[in-house]
Amino acid sequence: MKKAEAERDIRHMVSLWKKLPEQAGQSNDELSFCAFYAWVRSEYPNYLDFRTTTGVSYDAEMWFDQELGTAWKK
Questions:
Q1: What are the sequence ranges of the domains in the chain?
Q2: Spatial distance between the Cα atoms of 28 and 40, rounded to a whole number of angstroms
Q3: Rounded to whole angstroms, how far apart are CA atoms 43 and 47?
Q4: Please, what is the angle between helix 56-68 and helix 33-43, to 10°?
Q5: How far apart are CA 38 and CA 36, in angstroms?
Q6: Phi, psi (5° rounding) for residue 55?
Q7: What are the backbone angles phi and psi of residue 61, rounded to the nearest 5°?
Q8: Is 10 left (phi over 0), alpha (psi -120 to 50) or beta?
Q9: How far apart are CA 67 and CA 55, in angstroms?
Q10: What is the DSSP letter of 53?
Q11: Residues 47-64: tens digit of each pLDDT
Q12: How many whole angstroms separate alpha carbon 30 and alpha carbon 15?
């Protein structure tokens, strides 16, 4: 998978994951990237198979934070 495709899909998955019952009632600040990453790795591992110079987890966390509007915390 190309990095741009993975980015598009992972960003979309953030909104899907937020709607799962396990995340109900949590603010964006309370959502855990580790929990999201584990969910993607378990349910959609092919989206984590792309080439990057910084690292798959690093890029996915950056997109996760940007989608939630929490990138300023880093």
A1: 3-73
A2: 18
A3: 10
A4: 120
A5: 5
A6: 120, 140
A7: -65, -40
A8: alpha
A9: 18
A10: S
A11: 999 999 999 999 999 999
A12: 15
The Cα 49–Cα 68 span in angstroms is 23
pLDDT at 74 over 90: no
Q: Which two tokens stand for residue 17?
A: 């994951």
> How many Å apart are CA 40 and CA 60, to the nearest integer?
10
Residue whose entry in the numeric block shows the structure tokens 């980015």: 7
Which residue type, as a one-letter code, is found at position 10? I
Model pTM? 0.90
Axis crossing angle, helix 56-68 with helix 3-18, rounded to the nearest 10: 50
